[in-house]
Amino acid sequence: AAPRATPGARARAVEVCTSGIMKIQQRAARGAVGGRWWAAAAAAIVLACGVSPLAEAHSRLGCPAPRSPSTALKDAPCGGVAADPAVTPVTLAPGRQTIIFEESISHVGAPWRVELAQGDVPSADACILLDHIPHNDASAPTPGDENTWTRYKISIVIPDVACTGCTLRFSNPMVPAGGCVDPGETCTSYHSCAQVTITGATPLANYECPGGAPEGWPFTGAPNTYVQESATWDASGWLVADGVPDEYRQSVGACADLAGPAPGGGGGGGGG
């Protein structure tokens, strides 16, 4: 009998195939190729790879709800998916807010970054809310089965800003062994964005981002500069690594009900 592919080899093969499908799908959504051409090209990849054109790769926001359900969007800052004016943004109050994100293919040491921006401005003009969120290297999702995807939960601080038409931006750089810079040509990154309204006091345009890591956050690499970064997450999706303050495990805000209780029952309830 022919040797069976290892899970890692299968995941890499699925990643290559689904990445091709999603690139064609994105071009079709932007009108760059016709619908019939997209269908024919996707079908050819499906036959060659044995994967569905709905199969996806890597990670996305789960709550607040993302603009796109895809986990395979590589175009910064939002995967080429524009904000939908028909969608009511999620309202977030300043202070701690739990966010949820999901991983469909595990990539060892691939961290995450969360930013806040007015619309789709370049990353250099966005405010980094939390960087160097470490990966769970025990994650083992099956790409085509959303029921197996790894769910992560963490509570970040939303600044005291007034902002409509804002974007909560989520990036997942695939860090090679030698490290990389994102955004930049040395990292391939996956992106996911959510439309939000923030009910604070200072207009976002007048807000000065503090820069650097928040007080108490133990993962303090330089902004946008990455090495492979991993830590321990519990079975329910909360970061439980040594040195992480309890406030990052509070289940609080607009996504609290979906997040469920935090370890030890910590939380501040639902609401915006």
Radius of gyration: 19 Å
Beta fraction: 25-35%
Poorly predicted spans: 1-11, 50-56
State the helicity in percent bands: 10-25%
How widely separated are the two ends?
57 Å
* Number of continuous helical runs: 3
Q: How many strand segments?
A: 13
Query: How would you classify the helix and strand content by structural class?
Result: alpha/beta
What average pLDDT do the residues reach? Answer: 83
Q: Which of globular, elongated, flat, extended, rod-shaped describes the shape?
A: globular
In N-to-C order, the SSE pattern is HHEEEEEEEEEEEEHE
The largest sheet is: 6 strands, mixed
Explain how this protein is built.
15% of the residues lie in helices and 28% in strands. The protein has three helices and 13 strands; from the N terminus they run H-H-E-E-E-E-E-E-E-E-E-E-E-E-H-E. It has helices at residues 7-29, 35-49, 256-259; strands at 59-63, 90-92, 95-103, 112-118, 127-133, 150-158, 161-174, 180-181, 188-199, 202-203, 225-226, 251-252, 267-269. Residues 1-11 and 50-56 have low confidence and may be disordered. A hairpin with an 8-residue loop joins strand 4 and strand 5 (127-133). The strands form four sheets. Strands 2, 4, 5, 7, 9 and 10 form a six-stranded mixed beta sheet that branches. A three-stranded antiparallel beta sheet has the order 1-3-6. Strands 8-11 form a two-stranded antiparallel ribbon. It has 272 residues and is an alpha/beta fold.
